[in-house]
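User: Predict structure, ligand iron/sulfur cluster.
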Amino acid sequence: MLTSFSVGGKTLDSLDLKILLVTKGIKVDYAVYERFCGTRRLNPDPLTCNCLILPDGTIVHITDVAMHMSYLKNAISLESLRNIRYALHIRTPFRLVVSHGGSAVLLHNGEQVTEVSFPPASRFYEQKTSGGLPYLGNAVLQGRDFLSFQCLWPCDYAKAGYPCQFCYSGGVYERLARKRKPDPPVPTPQDVAEITDYAVNKERTAKHIQLTGGSTMNPQAECHIIRKILAQIDSLVGLQNIPGEVLVYTTPPSDPETVDQVFEAGASRIACSLEVWSEDLARTITPGKWKFSGRERCLNCLKYIARKYGPNKACSSFVVGIEPAESYLEGAEYLARDGIVPIASIWIPFGRPVMGRIAVPGLDYYRKVKEGLAEIYAKYGIVPPGSTGLNVCLCRDIWNHRSEITACCPHGPAKVSNGPA
Ligand code: SF4
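Assistant: Predicted complex:
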């Protein structure tokens, strides 16, 4: 059951609150880090991908605005004064403080919203692989049970000068290439296997694994690299010891059958991300994807997976907040009809303007997406990845509460189907 909160005179459910917190950020009092650092998974270093947990269990990413501002100041002094304009817009009404009783409390304009908690303490970010690669900066623990590798191979599209506008990693690769500097090191298959072994077998902080990287120009995409990584994970960790799923993101290969090797190597699902459904906006916001791999190749690959491996095996991620809700939902339903999972990742606007803006839509926009997606998931039997939710994605939260959400929809509860129509 979603919890309700009173925020600035309005009643919000926990998904509305998650959206506001993710899009507006939070100013975290340093006392919160001092109080909880040793006993819970919370660290002032933004690379640790902190999250808080609302009373009903909803996971919410913490963008600590104060930490982010100091990061931006450094980036600005090195990069361009243009971004100051955007940095000055970072204001948040949300603050995280320690109460007199010693609990963590979320405030909105100084008024208490709710107590929150954090995941159990972890030593994950103190570790290095046998090759000396620090876990910090190369992998993150998300929510209660997800291990994500965010950059396992560089982004050729960004290096060619065509990064997606919202993508932080793409911006980094573009900048380095422009200055003719080398790519940052990426984890080897052995590094990935050791990190996975620690999180899954030793510390047991992860049940699900997510492998992600940039987009490459290779017509095979990254399937051959992923196959090697999965083989190494299997040999060190044992794929059978991963209790949840192995979600793999890849550029769509030119021949869709190339993905077969990834499923054979142990992937549970494969995602090829469109990011934006509106073709006009996609051309501008995701110029590399549009120019090099293109929409048709992506859809061919997703449909091939859905046809051969069945519903809920192909996924496509979208950045929610950068295109009209109607166009996102149109794309989500188009894919869901074929059993393809539309993933909803909330746009975090700090420091990376899209179409020249960092202003996010109002809550009505996200409510439309929440209700529309709940109906689509229920109607077509779509099951998004994960179990208890991820930091920035909304899809699993919506799925977990789909009956409740659709019951409140203006046209009543959706008819729940067991599979795609
Ligand atoms: S293609 Fe992927 S990694 Fe490259 S800029 Fe776009 S979202 Fe980022």
